[in-house]
Amino acid sequence: MITFKTISWKNFLSTGNQPTKVLLDNASTSLIIGTNGAGKSTILDALTFSLYGKSFRKINKGQLINTTNEKNCFVEIEFVVNNVEWKVERGIKPNIFKIYRDGKELDQNASAIDQQKWLEQNVLKMNYKSFTQIVILGSSSFVPFMQLPTNSRREVVEDLLDIKIFSSMNEIVKSRMRLIKDEVKTLELKKESLKDKVDMQKNFIQQIENQSKEDISSKEHQINTLLTEENTFMHKNENINKDVVVLQEKMTSLEGSASKLREYGNIKGKLSNKISGIVKEHKFFSENRVCPTCEQNIEESFRVNRISDSQSKAEELQKGYQELLNAIKKEEERESQFQQISGDLSKLLNGITQNNSHINGCQKQIKRLEQEIQTITSQVANRNTEHEKLEQFRTGLQDTFENISEKKEKITYLDFTYNLLKDGGVKTQIIKKYLPIINQQANKYLQMMDFYINFKLDEEFTETIESPIHEDFSYASFSEGEKMRIDLALLFTWREIARMKNSVNTNLLIMDEVFDSSLDGFGTEEFLKIIRFVIKDANIFVISHKEGLEDKFDSVIKFEKQGNFSRIEP
């Protein structure tokens, strides 16, 4: 059982920096009163914010900070669970979320989301929806059980009956099934791979046994053909080499022509220059008897001798020049022969290179064929090894078949468990067991409030209502006051179920403006009797601005506005 002790808050909604503290276990019944806007309902938001990190009313988290101070928003709640003292602190600006057990702060390495989940599952044992169904009944943002969608109704009841564990178990089973199905898919792929390997190995052994000799004979024939081709090219190279020797000898005899041509070319240039000079001299003395430069007469005997000498030298040089031209022509012919032979020799050498390339190709193919023959020979010699490989593949295939069968059997069991843990399985059986008690309690409280109808919830938590004066009635068919009686009856019922299960049982019950909205005077009296004499071991708080109720409660807490801040009146 959860026994809530105290709650305090500051800079929270309309509360200022001075903390407001409420003792939650001080009196059996407490009335909270005050004018509109005085902060009466702040306790509801403080409760849900401290425990669940969100307000009870539809208020954004950022709007919970007091708008005047705008910082140091802080809420603290203390409670006891099975003799263990707990305290939860939450704050905004700065953000705070701390949990204390017996005065010692717990490790906060986990994220705030994981820490909240741990608090709900391991300490409070109820989520926000369940808390607002058995602890708080409000008039503003509270959604009564009968107005919740079907899945939310189921969630609340599962929480109360402590059977949500089956949903968690169901998720584990589903995850395990998914994992094993993935393993089966992997094994199916492995099975197909091993089947292919078995077939390939069988074919391989058959091929070894049936085609080895034929393959070896065919490859040996190819080798002989290649050897013949290799010999042919080698013979061609021998003949070409003979021609190369002849041409090389001829080239040796013709070597030096190029250098001689260069030498003769230089001599030719010099002779040409000398002949040109003698021709100019002969022409000068033949055409001039007076020096054109100094205008002196040239002595006739000197002029005639010079002309005669020029003619003699010119004839001698012309003869030598002709001999030089003949020598040049001879060397040019020898150079031309040298170039022709060099070209022929290059063709022969290129032919040798091509033949060598063919020879290398033949040798590579011969080597490859010899290796293939060796491989085939080894395979034939090692057929037992190949049979052993085949047996290993077959053994692996059989093991895989058995593994798949075993996992499929597990999937069958898990599927049965999964269906058992689904909403229509064991949880439904438990709910069926408690439905009569739930309906009995709800009708008991309805009768206490002088509302005589037969109210029933089925396994889907859909209501059936029988009335002495109405037929085919549903929750929506009633007036607001009658709906309020049903909501109160279910609230008391859930608390009774929680007390029976002792999983989410708590001392605290807070009702906001239940008198002010829908209950008439007679209903109010009956309700007060229930909370005073029927609801046991509880600390009940009723928030109201209705007058004349103070003497009906053990304690009265009055909120007032002082300046811009709410506070409890001293």
Structure write-up:
This protein is of the alpha/beta class and 570 residues long. It folds into 2 domains: 216 residues, P-loop containing nucleotide triphosphate hydrolases (Rossmann fold); 200 residues, Helix Hairpins (Orthogonal Bundle). It has 12 helices and 14 strands. The strands form 3 sheets. A 6-stranded antiparallel beta sheet has the order 2-1-4-5-6-7, covered by helices on one side. Strands 8-11-12-3-13-14 form a 6-stranded mixed beta sheet. Strand 13 and strand 14 form a beta hairpin. Helix 9 crosses helix 10. The radius of gyration is 59 Å and the shape is elongated. It starts with a strand and ends with a strand. The model has no long low-confidence stretch (mean pLDDT 83).
What's the arrangement of strands in the largest beta sheet?
A: 2-1-4-5-6-7
Helix-strand topology string? EEEHEEEEHHEHHHHHHEEHEHHEEE
Number of domains: 2
Mean pLDDT: 83
Number of strands: 14
Assembly classification: single chain
Largest sheet: 6 strands, antiparallel
Which CATH architecture of the largest domain is right?
3-Layer(aba) Sandwich
Low-confidence stretches: none
CATH fold name of the largest domain: Rossmann fold
What's the Cα radius of gyration? 59 Å
Number of helices: 12
Beginning-to-end CA distance, first to last residue:
32 Å
| Proportion in helices | 55-70%
Key phrases:
alpha/beta, six-stranded antiparallel beta sheet, 570 residues, elongated, Helix Hairpins, Rossmann fold, 12 helices
